[in-house]
Amino acid sequence: MNKIWLSSPHLSGHEQKYVQEAFAANWIAPLGPNVDGFEQDLCRYTGTAHAAALSSGTAALHLALVMLGVGQNDVVLCQSFTFAASANPIVYQGAVPVFVDSEPETWNIGPNALETAIKAEKAKGKKVKAVIAVHLYGMPAKMHEIQELCRLHDIPLIEDAAEALGASYHGQKMGSFGLLNVLSFNGNKIITTSGGGALLSDNEAFIQKARFLATQARDNAPHYQHSEIGYNYRLSNICAGIGRGQMEVIDERVAQRRANFAFYSRELAASEGIRFQPEAEGSYSNRWLSCFIIDPLQTGGVTRENIRLALAAENIEARPLWKPMHLQPVFAGAPYYGGKVAEKLFQDGLCLPSGSNLTEEDLGRVVTCIKKGLQA
Ligand SMILES: *Cc1c(COP(=O)(O)O)cnc(C)c1O
Question: I want to staple 62 with a disulfide (CB 3.0 to 4.6 A). Which of 89, 207, 324, 347 is the partner?
Answer without folding.
Answer: 89
